[in-house]
Design goal:
Layout lengths: L20 H25 L8 H6 L6 H22 L11 H11 L2 H14 L4 E7 L5 E7 L10 E7 L6 H4 L3 H8 L5 H8 L1
Antiparallel strand pairs: 1-2, 1-3
Helix pairs in contact: 1-3, 4-5
Length: 200
C-alpha cells in the first residue's frame, strides 16, 4: 500500500495568526504531498521495502538499498517529519505539558525559558534548510539537536519529542526572512499534549 497524505488534524487556518492559512495549505497539500509521491516512487523501485513502516524506513535508513537510500532519506524523512510536525502543533492555548514533561525540561535545561532559548538557538543556527528538535535518548535524557534538510534524529537512535521546520517554505509567506520571529511566535501553537505523549 503506497503512503498517503493524511488530512491535517485541524483546519488550515487553525494556527492563525501565528502560522498563516496559506502557508499551511501549500506546506501540507504541495510540499508534504511531494515527499510522499517521491517516496512511493522510490519504493516502487525497491519493492522489498513495501512492507516497511515509515518509521522503519527512517530509523533503519542504513539498511535500505543504496540505489534508493538518498531518496528515502530526503523524501521518507520529509514524510515522517511533516506528519510529526502537524501533530506537534495545535490551536493556541488548547494544550498543556504534563508534569512529567515539565519536570524533565526543568531537570535537563534548568527551566522552560532556558529550553526555549536553546531550541531557538539551534533552529537559528541551522544554515539553509532543516529542523530543530527536542529529543530523548535511550536513557531518557533530553537534548536539543538540529538536522539538515529532511534528516531525522531517529536515524541516530534519538526519539523526537518536539520539532520545528525551519525550511523557508514553513514561514516565508508570513515572516519572509525573519526566522527568529517565526520561531518566537511558533511557541504559541506548540501542542504540549502531543509532546508529552512523545516523551512517553
Ligand atoms: Fe516543511
Amino acid at each position: 500500500m503506497p503512503f498517503e497524505l493524511a488530512p491535517l488534524p485541524y483546519a488550515y487556518n487553525a494556527l492563525e495568526p501565528f502560522v498563516d492559512e496559506r502557508t499551511m495549505q501549500i506546506h501540507h497539500d504541495k510540499h508534504h504531498q511531494a515527499y510522499i509521491t517521491n517516496l512511493n516512487a522510490a519504493i516502487e523501485k525497491a519493492p522489498e521495502l513495501a512492507t516497511w513502516s515509515l518509521t522503519d524506513l527512517v530509523a533503519k535508513l542504513g539498511q535500505t538499498p543504496e540505489s534508493v537510500r538518498g531518496v528515502i532519506r530526503n523524501h521518507g524523512g520529509g514524510h515522517w517529519n511533516h506528519d510529526f510536525f502537524w501533530n506537534v502543533m495545535a490551536p493556541a492555548g488548547t494544550t498543556k505539558a504534563t508534569a512529567k514533561l515539565s519536570s524533565a525540561i526543568d531537570a535537563n535545561f534548568g527551566s522552560l525559558d532556558n529550553f526555549k532559548a536553546e531550541f531557538e538557538k539551534s533552529a537559528m543556527g541551522r544554515f539553509g534548510s532543516g529542523w530543530a528538535w527536542l529529543v530523548s535518548d535511550s536513557a531518557g535524557k533530553l537534548t536539543v539537536v538540529s538536522t539538515a534538510n529532511q534528516d531525522n534524529p531517529l536515524t541516530d537512535g534519538l526519539t523526537p519529542v518536539l520539532g520545528v521546520d525551519v525550511w523557508e517554505h514553513a514561514y516565508y509567506l508570513k515572516y519572509q526572512n525573519l526566522r527568529a520571529e517565526y520561531l518566537k511566535q511558533w511557541w504559541n501553537v506548540v501542542n504540549w499534549d502531543q509532546a508529552s505523549k512523545n516523551l512517553g
